[in-house]
Amino acid sequence: MAGGGDSLRALLRAANALLQQRRYHAALSVIKGFRNGAVYGAKIRAPHALVMTFLFKSGSLREKLKSIAQATYAHSRNLAYFVFTYKGLLATQSRLQGKKIPFHSFLAACIGGWLVFGDNNPINSQIIMYLLSRILFGLARLAVEKGYIPQPKQDPFPLLAALVWGTVLWLFEYHRETLQPSLQSSMTYLYEDSEVWHDLSDFLIYNKRTDSK
């Protein structure tokens, strides 16, 4: 028994010594990136899928739990694959050219995005739209920082909020099919289901009646 414990401690010491080797840093960074992508994807998707599934999806408890597990797995897997691909390509380019340049990041991410997130499905679509909104904000701030557009004299956020809400409600009312299904569900709940009730039960307590009255 003691021999087994000594062997385990020796193995751990060897592993820790390996992790300290600078020449393996790039490869180990890729592996840890895969791990972090998987964990982060699960942390982000699981609570979101849980809430959205129980709020808006019908079906048995087993079907709902299966849907949550599938969505969580898909998000976790894709993010892990992307981080692995991105960091691997980044390290390869840096090694080939002898240094890291900004274009390496763009090219590695483009390739990773094409390979991992190129399939047009609900999970990937949500991730891409999440990133797109933040990219637009980031590019606008960068344009001001670099002097490509003048610094606004007043905070432009109220105007942006007005345009975003005006556009999305116009699309929902007249071109609903252009919106993502989960957004359609949310807006249906907020703006259409609030138009229908029969008595106090489905006016204040429930969204829709479940009995046959």
From TrEMBL:
Pfam families: Tim17 (PF02466). One of its GO terms (cellular component) is peroxisomal membrane. Signal peptide: none annotated. It comes from the Eukaryota. PANTHER family: PEROXISOMAL MEMBRANE PROTEIN 4. This is PXMP4 protein. It comes from Certhia brachydactyla (short-toed tree-creeper).
